[in-house]
Amino acid sequence: MAVTRTQAASMSTAGGRGLIDPVALMKIRSLELRARLVVEGFLRGLHRSPYHGFSVEFTEYRAYAPGDDIRFVDWRLYARTDRHYIKKFEDETNLRCHLLVDHSRSMAYGSRGYTKATYAATLAATLAQFLFGQGDAVGVVTFADRLGEYLPARNRPGHLRRLFLTLERAPDGQATNLDKPMAAVAGLLRRRGMVVLVSDLLAPLASLDRHLGALRAFGHEVVLFQILDPAELTFSFEAPALFRDLESGRNLFIDPGAVRARYQAGLTAHLDAIRGFCRRLGIAHHLVPTDQPIESALLAFLGERGRKGGKGLRGAR
Prior knowledge:
By secondary structure, the chain is α/β, with parallel strands linked by helices.
């Protein structure tokens, strides 16, 4: 079912919270429109709220320092403030962000009418829309058992559209293998910036902390969004059924009641291991169920940046 922009806008205010229900959002066919609706609604909500939850920074200017080129003094601002301010250059103000998006087969699972892959693409597109609107350079890398597509970080006309087209492609990889892709990413990203990993992380973690640690050692800020379906978190299945492993293709007949406790214990240990090395490496880890509004993940992202002294909200253009 296609949803028009007018319908989506009306849905975004449901419950008076200004958050778009993910079920409604994912019915919009255009990834670009989904991302734009989330960002525009998010910004409207911030402007109405007296409480942003993170610092709002003005970063178009900095104070004049002896030796600065006076050609870049804003004299109109001087007339209003009696202080000298210099317009910042793009390299001084802008972030370089690469979105690493999991395209393995496990991302094709979904219990709510849409898949983890669709949710992950929407979250990545929303982050790209927001950062691009601030003048930041954004790129994307897709991966499964190896690197897929690579679009370097840019901020120029037409680039955001190319990024959306890359994200819209359906996952076509095999099993999640974080070792080879993360090693390759470290070789690609030579300039310091931000790396945002969007994945279900349903894979062995033996080398992930080493690769993420290498990115941190090189000076990158690393953010991890772990995307899981609510059914994966609770294992709420009731009747015995045939389960299919999306990555290996194996069929397994399982009685949920008999294995639920063991499943949940294994998942808890897996999540604890991820949180542990993220704390050790200074990496922001956000566990994001696919029934959570995208705006909540965006707010968590900006709040984390504000706490770490990074750029907060400058007002997307």
